[in-house]
Amino acid sequence: MTTTPSDVTVLLDDRLRLTAAVLTLTHYPDQEKAKHGSHLHARSTRKHLAESADHPAVRDLQALLDRGAPLEAIFTLALMLDLETGSVERSPSWMPPGWGAALRDFYENTPLRAFWQKEEESWLRAVDEAARALGDKQFKPFLEMFVGAFPERLIFAPNILYPSDRELGLRLGGEIVCLVPPRIAWGESPPWPFDEDPAHVYRAVVATAGQMLMMDFLRANAGSISLEGQKPLPLNDAFMQNNPTWAEQFTYLFVTSAVAIFLEDHVSRQEADAYVLMERRVTGLDVLPPAIQVYRRYMREVRDGNYSTILDFIPHFSRQLRIAHRVGKM
């Protein structure tokens, strides 16, 4: 385990690495292959473990994927696994019977661990790169300005296996784990090293932790958020169809704004603008720059003592966003 001066701890967790290795033997990598290249270690893992492709752990994981189980749920389940015994603490009803034992058997009786020893440098390099990228950046004070104090440790777990094109946010046992692959490159080029793209690392931490924290905050305080605070937001129909609840819409605007603000403050305005442009292309939302302005104002108001928590701000959010949106169109 490597601890950086940042308040985010970088570490490797064999349970997550094990699950990601099993994932390489399912059909999942084929779904990614058409879109981009993958990390050399991911391709090597699939080749090295090919003879274990019919292992019960692989079949069970493929069955979960076929049933539409979210990767977040699958990897959170991995964090409940005791590798020594194969038992799973508080196993959910959807877990395949005996899957914990099957994972332990895969861990103990396939070439996986010997391959990890051979490839140790790849994993340690990923840890070192992530630690250098994080540097001395502090994320908890930034996030707590919006969601209040939270007790969990922030963990960055580099993932050079699969999924290779998206990060996963996992929350369990006093930890918020950001399972993050390096940023993919075009075509068959290898992914970028973490320390050559710190913005990717910052975005992943703020986005994954921020989304989980804000959604949990809104659920915990649902009784305190009035209908006045949940006024419709100026969003397009396609976005609202994909994100039908007010909480989902508010959380997306928060996460996008928070990432942009953090990137501008800790990398550059250019990096923040590039991120917002990409989000606008994906969602078609022209309300993102105004949302960032509104959240900037909220941060100033917090520092000036005008808001004690974001609950004081939420009733004003829709109106402020609409005004900023309208002014931006002038």
Structure overview:
Helix 8 crosses helix 10, helix 10 (198-220) packs antiparallel against helix 12 and helix 12 (246-266) runs antiparallel to helix 13 (269-283). This protein has a five-stranded mixed β-sheet, sandwiched between helices. It has two domains: 2-204, no CATH class; 221-329, no CATH class. The chain has helices at 14-24, 28-33, 40-48, 56-66, 71-79, 99-109, 112-118, 120-134, 140-147, 198-220, 237-242, 246-266, 269-283, 288-303, 310-329; strands at 2-3, 8-10, 153-158, 168-172, 175-180. Helix content is 57%, strand content 7%. The mean pLDDT is 92. With 330 residues, the chain is of the alpha/beta class.
The helix-and-strand class reads: alpha/beta
Question: Would you identify the regions where 5 or more consecutive residues have pLDDT less than 50?
Answer: none
- Please provide the ordered H/E string of secondary-structure elements: EEHHHHHHHHHEEEHHHHHH
Output the strand order for the largest sheet.
1-2-3-5-4
Annotation, overall tally of beta strands:
5
**Which bin fits the share of residues in helices?**
55-70%
The total count of helices amounts to 15
User: What is the CA-CA span between the terminal residues?
Assistant: 52 Å
Overall pLDDT: 92
The fraction of residues assigned to DSSP E strands is 5-15%
Radius of gyration: 21 Å
